[in-house]
Structures are given as C-alpha cells and as structure tokens.
C-alpha cells in the first residue's frame, strides 16, 4: 500500500524526550526516546518477553526498561539485563530502526537497516531557519496517505472548501495550466497567475492596498511518499525577493487507511510570534476541514470501493504522484519476490 524504501517522519523533535513515546507507522509500533546525550532512539515497541509495549516503560540512563518484565534494552535493541537471572537469554532483543533528526523532525527508516545509508532524508531547512517564521500542528487523519498527497497536488479545491482562506487568484476565472516536471521518484509543478488581489487576511501582512494587484506563483513538490512541500509566492516591486508562504506536509502512513499528518506554515515576511498567533486559527480550521473531507472520501472508498473518476487539467500532478507511488510499491514487491 505504501513504499518502505524511504524515510518517514515518526515525530517532531520536540515530542521525543526522556519519557518513551509510543507511535505507530507503516503498521509498525515504535518506542521513541532521547538518551541523556540527546540522541533519538527508535525501537520496536514490543517487549521481547511478552506482548507489552516498551513505550510504557522508563529510561535507566541509555536503557529502556519494560514496565512488565523489567527487561532492559540498549539503543541498539539488545537486551542487556534481565531482573530474574544473571544471564541474558541468547539473542534476546528487539528491532532497532535507523534514525535521523534534522530540521526539527525525526526521520525513521523502516526497510532493511543496511539500505538506510544509501539514501538521506529530505531537508526542510526553513523549518529551523530564523529567517522564516513557522507555525503548525499535527494529528492523525483517518484516510490513506495517497489521498492526502493528491489533495496537496491540487489547491484549486481551496476556493470551494474555504473561500475565506483561498487566494482570489483561484476564483478569478479558469486557472492557468500547470508546468509539471516528473522524475523517477518526484513530481514538481509551477503555475503562474495573472496579477490579482490578495485575500483579506493576507493583504495586511505586506501593507497592501485593498485593490492592489500582485503577480502570484504557486509551486508544489511531491518530494517523496513522506513529504509534500508547496509555496505561494507574491511578487512586488517593493523588494527583490517574493513574499513567500511555504507549506510543509510530513505524511506518514500509520496503516492502509490512517495517516499521521504534520503540517507547518512558514513565511519569509511579517516575522514574529504575534502574526503567527493570528494566522494559526485560520489555517488550523482549514486543515481540519481538509481532514474531515479526506476521512469522508476514505469512508466512501471503504463502503463503495474505487471507481473511475472524471479528471481535469488541474489533476496533472496528482496523477503523476499516484503513478510514482504505484511504481515504487511494485518495484519493492518484485525485489521481495526475487529474494524468495
């Protein structure tokens, strides 16, 4: 249902502390914790002695100790202490997952550990850059990961779903076509709009007049099955670089029809927590509406099954995303079959 040979975001860096955190991703339970040295560890969330989550245990230095059996595991997943006997049973341990923490996100590799070094998690440096102001939220959506990606790939729905937040350029008439670029594992697109006004909430952020027109550009990128990034650039003669909103979506399948969604909204203008506090409710309400819509779509698919859908020009990027994910899953399936 989803590729495994790529990095996925299991949590934000702020969520992982010296208190074990239980998470589920790609059908796998994870116990995440931070060692005294600050390293993030991801272990299989199941005691080797009994079907009990390690994430319900506690830390003893670098070790995580099961709250049921008392078995203690090191950051590599090896059981190093058993309370009832001096010897540790041969081979006792749990799976350890490769982890990279960067830009405020904790990335985990779910395929064979030996393959992790061949690929690196995508970077999102603006999330940790003081030149950008960022806010956001995270939650679980009861819909498959592909439904989320397809929604991000076509923002023309925003004008229908939430006219208040939508840029007026989206509803000014037929939207311009997409300039789509496709690689083996990614999709990128650009769409330039004729000069248009800004939304009522957007204009004051750059001191725009009510009837002032701005050149606007939409850019989106399916970076990997785990990450979608898009931008809305507003160009003005006031300064050389555009006023940019950048939207970051970390998409992690929990299971076939459940997805962990971490969303962030960043901007390179109107800096400060006060502006972020004003914008957060607006975007949180919008993304909650999107979540409700996607969960309704998933329910319809579960009840009625998939059917051929009418496609329009705005679906160009979404169609390519589905093709790439399908090809990645098929390639991994072929490799597994050949190994058997």
Provide structural commentary.
- The protein has helices spanning 145-152, 158-161, 273-304, 316-339, and strands at 7-12, 21-25, 28-34, 40-44, 58-60, 63-65, 72-73, 79-81, 96-97, 99-102, 105-109, 133-141, 179-182, 187-196, 214-224, 227-235, 243-255, 258-267.
- The protein is of the alpha+beta class.
- The chain has two domains: 7-118, 3-layer Sandwich (Rieske Iron-sulfur Protein); 125-332, Naphthalene 1,2-dioxygenase Alpha Subunit, Chain A, domain 1 (Alpha-Beta Complex), CATH 3.90.380.
- The radius of gyration is 22 Å and the shape is globular.
Main features:
alpha+beta; seven-stranded antiparallel β-sheet; 2 domains; 18 strands; Naphthalene 1,2-dioxygenase Alpha Subunit, Chain A, domain 1; dioxygenase; Rieske Iron-sulfur Protein
What's the name of the CATH homologous superfamily of the largest domain? Naphthalene 1,2-dioxygenase Alpha Subunit, Chain A, domain 1
First and last CA, distance: 20 Å
Spans of at least 5 consecutive residues with low confidence: none
Q: Indicate the mean pLDDT.
A: 94
Query: Order of strands in the sheet with the most strands?
Result: 12-18-17-16-15-14-13
SSE class: alpha+beta
Radius of gyration: 22 Å
Q: How many DSSP H or I helices?
A: 4
Helix content: 10-25%
Topology, number of strands: 18
Question: How many domains make up the 3D coordinates?
Answer: 2
- The CATH architecture of the largest domain is Alpha-Beta Complex
CATH topology description of the largest domain: Naphthalene 1,2-dioxygenase Alpha Subunit, Chain A, domain 1
Give the overall form. Answer: globular
Largest sheet, strands/sense/barrel: 7 strands, antiparallel
What's the order of the H and E elements?
EEEEEEEEEEEEHHEEEEEEHH
**What portion of the residues fall into strands of 2 or more residues?**
25-35%
CATH hierarchy, class of the largest domain: Alpha Beta
InterPro entries: Cholesterol_7-desaturase (IPR050584), Rieske_2Fe-2S (IPR017941), Rieske_2Fe-2S_sf (IPR036922), VanA_C_cat (IPR044043)
Keywords: 2Fe-2S, Dioxygenase, Iron, Iron-sulfur, Metal-binding, Oxidoreductase
Domain Rieske: 7-108
GO molecular function: dioxygenase activity
């Amino acid at each position: 249902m989803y590729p495994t040979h790529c990095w996925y975001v299991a949590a934000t860096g702020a969520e992982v502390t010296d208190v074990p955190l239980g998470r589920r991703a790609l059908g796998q339970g994870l116990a995440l914790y931070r060692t005294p040295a600050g390293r993030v560890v991801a272990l299989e969330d199941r005691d080797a002695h009994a079907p009990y989550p390690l994430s319900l245990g506690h830390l003893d230095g670098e070790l995580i100790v099961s709250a049921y059996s008392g078995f203690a595991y090191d950051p590599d997943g090896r059981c190093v202490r058993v309370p009832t006997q001096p010897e540790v049973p041969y081979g006792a341990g749990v799976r350890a997952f490769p982890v990279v923490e960067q830009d405020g996100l904790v990335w985990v590799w779910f395929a064979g550990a030996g393959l992790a070094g061949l690929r690196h998690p995508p970077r999102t440096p603006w999330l940790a850059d003081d030149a950008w102001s960022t806010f956001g939220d995270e939650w679980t959506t009861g819909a498959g990961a592909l439904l989320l990606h397809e929604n991000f790939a076509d923002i023309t729905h925003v004008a229908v779903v939430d006219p208040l937040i939508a840029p007026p350029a989206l509803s000014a008439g037929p939207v311009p076509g997409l300039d789509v670029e496709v690689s083996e594992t990614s999709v990128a697109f650009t769409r330039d709009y004729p000069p248009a006004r800004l939304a009522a909430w957007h204009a004051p952020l750059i001191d725009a007049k009510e009837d002032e027109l701005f050149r606007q550009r939409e850019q989106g990128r399916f970076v990997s099955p785990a990450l979608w990034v898009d931008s809305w650039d507003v160009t003005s003669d006031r300064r050389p670089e555009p006023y940019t909103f950048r939207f970051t979506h970390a998409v992690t399948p929990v299971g076939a029809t459940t997805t962990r969604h971490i969303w962030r909204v960043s901007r390179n203008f109107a800096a400060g927590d006060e502006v972020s506090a004003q914008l957060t409710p607006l975007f949180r309400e919008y993304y909650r509406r999107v979540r409700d819509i996607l969960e309704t779509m998933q329910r319809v698919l579960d009840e009625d099954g998939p059917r051929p859908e009418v496609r329009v020009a705005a679906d160009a990027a979404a169609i390519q995303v589905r093709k790439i994910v399908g090809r990645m899953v098929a390639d991994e399936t072929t490799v597994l079959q050949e190994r058997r």
